[in-house]
Amino acid sequence: MDAMTSASVLPPPPPLPGASSDSAAPGAAAATGTSAAPGAAAAHDAATSTTPPAATTVAVPPKVRISSPGRVAGAAAHLAALGVVGPAVFTALFSLFGSGFGLLPALLIGVVVLVAFVYALFAVAWFERARVDGLYRLGLAPFRPRRSAKPGFVGVLHTIWLQAIDPLQWRAVASFAVATVLGLITVTAIGIVSWGIGLVVSPIFGWSDTRLLGIVPLPGIAAPLTGAAAVIVALGAIVGLAILHGVIVRAIFVPSREAQLVEQARTSDTRRAGAVRAAEVERTRIERDLHDGVQPRLVSIGMTLGLAQTKIDDDPETAKALVAEAHASTKSAITELRQLARGIHASVLEDRGLDAALSALASRSHIPVTLDVRLPRRCGRAAEEAVYFAIAETLTNAAKHSRAAACRVDVRVREDGSLWARVEDDGLGGARIVPGGGLDGIVNRVTAAGGTARIDSPQGGPTTVEVNVPCAS
């Protein structure tokens, strides 16, 4: 199976059970089952982690009045605070960066400092996005650290690298830097306002020797007039800086309409390709199951009945035995057809929801499955089907390939409204994606529903399959 590259966007959820390798009808394994974790390890070759490209629809941000009095006042307060705090933050960041490079000859010490610098940048970016979204209500998605799909120490290094080059992080840091510069100017303007007010009230306190910038004397009424002008100009500058801040952050954080349309077109293409591929994989699976299972059994039934027909006159007892054998084979064929139909459409999912459908799935599993499903409401049909069949395929592959003794399935509705599930088994690991295989079907089905899938199956286990699908899909 080809290992697929990881495109993380998924904020890092809890570990998910089960991966798998070859295709197997999603609900195919009928039999005993208890409540235990769904597993899924498949072909035991090189370990692989996978995340298909994100295929979520780009939401058009709400219209925001950045020049409303409340937001202008809030932005001015933010800028004043950042004018005081921002320089200290950047001093600390530059100190970390310089110390890291300076200590590189000391190997681990310099590396640790540079890693701290990277995640200090992440902290600044997280704060800036939260600040901007709280002030302007732009509807920004929660900012989460990047995570590599690669296993082991290489995965740790790749995670740090992904975080260091994360464009969203650098855009947020740039916004923080711009806000800090505007904040320094705002603090200066506030100082001018204070100085101007002092000039305005100077005649009351009898200040006779007032000077502009400590040089130009301001005799008589010139002092209060100069102070009033300074206050008006400085207040206008503060308001202008606050409005400019709103314009800049919108340009940094909110994509243009053209960029949104391009992203929506790319997302639509990705989902359509995933849907087409998922349909191909499903058709191939159905053909294989019919050809390898039900069809030979029906042919055998026909031959058995034909043989019974030839013996019905000469050897009635043998004919009866053959008819009984054909009858038993017919029951088995019906069972196989039911399992095949369940793999195409789970009626219990539509009638009673995902929780009941997964309970039925776990009860038929050959290995114990522990279910932890917490769903406060029903999600969209496409989302529930994608998650259900992903879990079903994972459990099937775990039973077939992973040699797992137990599996665990967790399902949640996340804060962003998406349906998240994780399957983890305690099998051998080494699951890989092959075209037309079970993992390939999971990835394509989830991508077609607008979600993401992540598969982590290092050699030796455990195998974890994690899927995240928008509830509205």
Automatic annotation (TrEMBL):
Region (Disordered): 1-32
UniProt keyword annotations, A-Z: ATP-binding, Kinase, Membrane, Nucleotide-binding, Phosphoprotein, Transferase, Transmembrane, Transmembrane helix, Two-component regulatory system
Catalytic activity entry: ATP + protein L-histidine = ADP + protein N-phospho-L-histidine
GO terms assigned for molecular function: ATP binding; phosphorelay sensor kinase activity; protein dimerization activity
Residue intervals of the Signal transduction histidine kinase subgroup 3 dimerisation and phosphoacceptor domain: 282-347
Signal peptide per UniProt: none
Protein name as it appears in the record: histidine kinase
Any one annotated GO CC term: membrane
Organism: Microbacterium enclense
